[in-house]
Amino acid sequence: MNCVVLGLGSNRSYNGLDPVSLLRRAVVELEKIASDVVISSVYRTKAMYVEDQDDFYNMVIAGLVEDGMTPHKLLECIHEIEGFLGRDRSKEVRFGPRSVDIDIEFIGDLEIDDPDLQIPHPRLIERAFVLQPLLEILPKCADAMKGEKLKKIEKMTVSSKDVQLYLDSKSFFLSKVDEEVQNGNRDTDTRSS
Question: What architecture is the 2-183 domain classified under in CATH?
């Protein structure tokens, strides 16, 4: 099993779901491919790079994926989830509004640098909206995250007025459970075939 850390963000509604509901739905879908998932709180953050857009709602999750789940296969699964939740990469502005964005921050101690995938995520250090929730969940998943990357992350401190707690992880989880009950069994694949 490999520990995976994913950064999630949303700042646009889709199909009647607001950004936080889309994050909940994304977590439900990600729990189908990762086990022992730990979720951070949700943070409201100012948009970076393209600032003329609505604020983002960001969070981080960590979980375990099977050894057979290669980084590129995980990326394919993530792109399917993003598409299911309204993201169309062919029509979006880079760093612009999106219904859901899921970034692979880490997979174990792997380092990858190819045109389609860079791990660790190359802009992690400049993104308080990823670092702040990552530092929040680190004590809960540190056993699964080992090596030099963990030592570096543990030493980081983050302070940004543009990253504000929006919804604590307990409230997010309870809301997610309520949503699952309303939508029926969460193990039913809701993606169209």
Answer: 2-Layer Sandwich (3.30)
